[in-house]
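U., I forgot to send this yesterday:
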Amino acid sequence: MNKILENKKVIFLDVGYTLDAPASGDWMLTNKFYEIVGDRINGIDPEEIRRAKYVGIDFLEENHLLYTMEEEYKQDIEFYSIVSKELGMRLSLKELEEIAYDRTYNMKNYIVYPGTVDAVKELSKSFKLGIISDTWPSITPQLEYIGVLKYISFYTYSCSIGVFKPDERMYLDALGKCGVPAEETVFVDDRVANLEGAAKVGITPVLITVNPGSDRETSFTKIKELRDLL
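Result:
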Protein backbone atom coordinates (compact mmCIF):
# COMPACT_ATOMS: atom_id res chain seq x y z
CA MET A 1 0.00 0.00 0.00
CA ASN A 2 1.24 3.51 -0.82
CA LYS A 3 3.07 5.15 2.09
CA ILE A 4 0.80 8.21 1.99
CA LEU A 5 -2.08 6.03 3.22
CA GLU A 6 -0.35 5.18 6.48
CA ASN A 7 -2.59 6.04 9.45
CA LYS A 8 -5.44 7.00 7.12
CA LYS A 9 -9.00 5.73 7.41
CA VAL A 10 -10.86 7.50 4.57
CA ILE A 11 -9.99 8.18 0.94
CA PHE A 12 -12.03 10.85 -0.85
CA LEU A 13 -12.06 10.64 -4.64
CA ASP A 14 -12.89 13.11 -7.37
CA VAL A 15 -14.72 11.62 -10.38
CA GLY A 16 -13.96 13.34 -13.70
CA TYR A 17 -10.37 12.77 -14.85
CA THR A 18 -9.85 10.71 -11.71
CA LEU A 19 -12.19 7.75 -12.22
CA ASP A 20 -13.47 8.41 -15.73
CA ALA A 21 -13.25 10.59 -18.83
CA PRO A 22 -15.77 11.94 -21.37
CA ALA A 23 -16.28 9.64 -24.36
CA SER A 24 -16.26 12.62 -26.76
CA GLY A 25 -13.26 14.30 -25.16
CA ASP A 26 -15.48 17.01 -23.65
CA TRP A 27 -17.92 16.79 -20.71
CA MET A 28 -20.57 18.98 -22.36
CA LEU A 29 -19.96 18.76 -26.10
CA THR A 30 -20.97 15.12 -26.37
CA ASN A 31 -20.96 12.74 -29.33
CA LYS A 32 -24.71 13.34 -29.67
CA PHE A 33 -24.08 17.09 -29.80
CA TYR A 34 -21.67 16.69 -32.71
CA GLU A 35 -23.96 14.16 -34.41
CA ILE A 36 -26.95 16.51 -34.39
CA VAL A 37 -25.03 19.73 -35.08
CA GLY A 38 -23.34 18.11 -38.05
CA ASP A 39 -21.93 20.48 -40.68
CA ARG A 40 -23.21 23.52 -38.82
CA ILE A 41 -20.10 23.52 -36.67
CA ASN A 42 -17.69 23.28 -39.63
CA GLY A 43 -15.55 26.34 -40.11
CA ILE A 44 -16.19 27.74 -36.63
CA ASP A 45 -12.96 28.60 -34.88
CA PRO A 46 -12.26 26.17 -31.98
CA GLU A 47 -11.59 29.11 -29.68
CA GLU A 48 -15.03 30.51 -30.52
CA ILE A 49 -16.61 27.14 -29.71
CA ARG A 50 -14.77 27.14 -26.41
CA ARG A 51 -15.95 30.67 -25.64
CA ALA A 52 -19.57 29.75 -26.41
CA LYS A 53 -19.33 26.66 -24.23
CA TYR A 54 -18.14 28.69 -21.26
CA VAL A 55 -20.96 31.19 -21.68
CA GLY A 56 -23.26 28.18 -21.22
CA ILE A 57 -21.21 26.87 -18.31
CA ASP A 58 -21.51 30.26 -16.60
CA PHE A 59 -25.28 29.78 -16.69
CA LEU A 60 -24.98 26.28 -15.21
CA GLU A 61 -22.69 27.47 -12.43
CA GLU A 62 -24.94 30.39 -11.53
CA ASN A 63 -27.91 28.02 -11.18
CA HIS A 64 -26.23 25.03 -9.61
CA LEU A 65 -28.39 24.01 -6.65
CA LEU A 66 -30.52 21.18 -8.02
CA TYR A 67 -31.56 17.72 -6.92
CA THR A 68 -33.13 15.70 -9.75
CA MET A 69 -32.11 14.54 -13.19
CA GLU A 70 -35.23 16.22 -14.58
CA GLU A 71 -33.94 19.55 -13.26
CA GLU A 72 -30.56 18.76 -14.78
CA TYR A 73 -32.16 17.90 -18.13
CA LYS A 74 -34.00 21.25 -18.21
CA GLN A 75 -30.77 23.08 -17.40
CA ASP A 76 -28.97 21.20 -20.14
CA ILE A 77 -31.59 22.32 -22.66
CA GLU A 78 -30.83 25.91 -21.71
CA PHE A 79 -27.08 25.26 -21.88
CA TYR A 80 -27.27 23.96 -25.44
CA SER A 81 -29.65 26.77 -26.38
CA ILE A 82 -27.03 29.27 -25.22
CA VAL A 83 -24.28 27.52 -27.17
CA SER A 84 -26.50 27.38 -30.27
CA LYS A 85 -27.26 31.11 -30.08
CA GLU A 86 -23.65 32.07 -29.40
CA LEU A 87 -22.48 30.11 -32.45
CA GLY A 88 -25.43 30.96 -34.68
CA MET A 89 -26.30 27.30 -35.26
CA ARG A 90 -30.08 27.71 -34.89
CA LEU A 91 -30.74 24.35 -33.27
CA SER A 92 -34.46 23.57 -33.06
CA LEU A 93 -36.16 22.86 -29.73
CA LYS A 94 -36.41 19.19 -30.71
CA GLU A 95 -32.68 19.06 -31.42
CA LEU A 96 -31.87 20.84 -28.16
CA GLU A 97 -34.03 18.40 -26.22
CA GLU A 98 -32.43 15.38 -27.89
CA ILE A 99 -28.90 16.58 -27.15
CA ALA A 100 -29.80 17.51 -23.56
CA TYR A 101 -31.59 14.22 -22.91
CA ASP A 102 -28.54 12.29 -24.10
CA ARG A 103 -26.21 14.45 -21.97
CA THR A 104 -28.32 13.80 -18.86
CA TYR A 105 -29.40 10.19 -19.23
CA ASN A 106 -26.91 8.41 -21.51
CA MET A 107 -24.18 6.95 -19.33
CA LYS A 108 -22.22 5.84 -22.39
CA ASN A 109 -20.94 9.42 -22.40
CA TYR A 110 -18.42 8.24 -19.77
CA ILE A 111 -15.43 5.94 -20.08
CA VAL A 112 -13.91 4.50 -16.92
CA TYR A 113 -10.11 4.45 -16.81
CA PRO A 114 -8.53 0.98 -17.09
CA GLY A 115 -7.91 -0.64 -13.72
CA THR A 116 -10.02 1.89 -11.83
CA VAL A 117 -12.79 -0.46 -10.71
CA ASP A 118 -10.31 -3.05 -9.45
CA ALA A 119 -8.37 -0.34 -7.62
CA VAL A 120 -11.50 1.07 -5.98
CA LYS A 121 -12.63 -2.41 -4.97
CA GLU A 122 -9.24 -3.20 -3.43
CA LEU A 123 -8.99 0.13 -1.60
CA SER A 124 -12.49 -0.33 -0.17
CA LYS A 125 -11.27 -3.41 1.71
CA SER A 126 -8.96 -1.29 3.88
CA PHE A 127 -10.50 2.21 3.77
CA LYS A 128 -13.86 3.91 3.68
CA LEU A 129 -14.24 5.66 0.34
CA GLY A 130 -16.04 8.91 -0.39
CA ILE A 131 -16.68 11.16 -3.38
CA ILE A 132 -16.09 14.92 -3.50
CA SER A 133 -17.18 16.07 -6.95
CA ASP A 134 -18.28 19.13 -8.88
CA THR A 135 -21.19 17.47 -10.60
CA TRP A 136 -24.91 17.15 -11.33
CA PRO A 137 -27.63 14.70 -10.18
CA SER A 138 -26.80 12.22 -12.95
CA ILE A 139 -23.63 11.42 -11.00
CA THR A 140 -25.37 8.51 -9.23
CA PRO A 141 -26.18 6.48 -12.36
CA GLN A 142 -22.79 7.54 -13.74
CA LEU A 143 -20.97 5.98 -10.79
CA GLU A 144 -23.14 2.89 -11.07
CA TYR A 145 -22.46 2.62 -14.81
CA ILE A 146 -18.69 2.80 -14.42
CA GLY A 147 -18.89 0.16 -11.70
CA VAL A 148 -17.79 1.92 -8.50
CA LEU A 149 -20.99 3.04 -6.76
CA LYS A 150 -21.25 -0.01 -4.49
CA TYR A 151 -17.81 0.68 -3.03
CA ILE A 152 -18.53 4.28 -2.01
CA SER A 153 -19.74 5.14 1.51
CA PHE A 154 -19.97 8.97 1.47
CA TYR A 155 -21.01 11.49 -1.18
CA THR A 156 -20.41 15.24 -1.41
CA TYR A 157 -21.79 16.72 -4.62
CA SER A 158 -21.57 20.39 -5.57
CA CYS A 159 -25.12 20.37 -6.94
CA SER A 160 -26.44 19.41 -3.49
CA ILE A 161 -24.56 22.23 -1.75
CA GLY A 162 -24.62 24.91 -4.43
CA VAL A 163 -20.87 25.62 -4.42
CA PHE A 164 -17.85 24.19 -6.20
CA LYS A 165 -14.41 23.08 -5.09
CA PRO A 166 -12.24 24.58 -3.70
CA ASP A 167 -14.96 26.16 -1.51
CA GLU A 168 -14.25 24.78 1.96
CA ARG A 169 -17.92 23.84 2.42
CA MET A 170 -17.36 20.94 0.05
CA TYR A 171 -14.59 19.48 2.19
CA LEU A 172 -16.29 20.20 5.51
CA ASP A 173 -19.42 18.45 4.25
CA ALA A 174 -17.35 15.40 3.33
CA LEU A 175 -15.58 15.37 6.69
CA GLY A 176 -18.88 15.70 8.54
CA LYS A 177 -20.32 12.72 6.67
CA CYS A 178 -17.35 10.43 7.24
CA GLY A 179 -16.96 11.33 10.92
CA VAL A 180 -13.17 11.05 10.77
CA PRO A 181 -10.64 13.80 11.60
CA ALA A 182 -9.20 15.51 8.53
CA GLU A 183 -5.68 14.28 9.27
CA GLU A 184 -6.91 10.70 8.85
CA THR A 185 -8.20 11.35 5.32
CA VAL A 186 -6.78 11.67 1.81
CA PHE A 187 -8.27 13.41 -1.23
CA VAL A 188 -7.39 12.39 -4.80
CA ASP A 189 -8.17 15.01 -7.47
CA ASP A 190 -6.81 16.08 -10.86
CA ARG A 191 -6.66 19.82 -10.08
CA VAL A 192 -4.08 21.45 -7.81
CA ALA A 193 -6.49 24.24 -6.80
CA ASN A 194 -8.99 21.67 -5.51
CA LEU A 195 -6.25 19.93 -3.56
CA GLU A 196 -5.13 23.23 -2.06
CA GLY A 197 -8.68 23.69 -0.78
CA ALA A 198 -8.58 20.24 0.80
CA ALA A 199 -5.19 20.88 2.36
CA LYS A 200 -6.48 24.05 4.01
CA VAL A 201 -8.90 22.01 6.12
CA GLY A 202 -6.28 19.38 6.94
CA ILE A 203 -7.03 16.70 4.33
CA THR A 204 -3.92 15.12 2.75
CA PRO A 205 -3.89 15.99 -0.99
CA VAL A 206 -2.89 13.64 -3.83
CA LEU A 207 -2.70 14.82 -7.45
CA ILE A 208 -3.73 12.23 -10.04
CA THR A 209 -2.40 12.71 -13.58
CA VAL A 210 -4.14 9.96 -15.53
CA ASN A 211 -5.35 12.83 -17.73
CA PRO A 212 -2.05 14.24 -19.12
CA GLY A 213 -3.47 17.75 -18.98
CA SER A 214 -3.67 17.47 -15.20
CA ASP A 215 0.07 17.09 -14.66
CA ARG A 216 1.40 20.16 -12.83
CA GLU A 217 4.41 21.04 -10.73
CA THR A 218 3.35 20.71 -7.11
CA SER A 219 4.66 19.75 -3.70
CA PHE A 220 1.70 17.40 -3.30
CA THR A 221 2.11 13.65 -3.70
CA LYS A 222 1.52 12.75 -7.34
CA ILE A 223 0.20 9.49 -8.80
CA LYS A 224 -0.29 8.52 -12.44
CA GLU A 225 -3.42 6.42 -11.83
CA LEU A 226 -5.53 5.19 -8.94
CA ARG A 227 -3.74 1.82 -8.90
CA ASP A 228 -0.63 3.65 -7.70
CA LEU A 229 -2.23 3.92 -4.26
CA LEU A 230 -2.13 0.15 -3.87
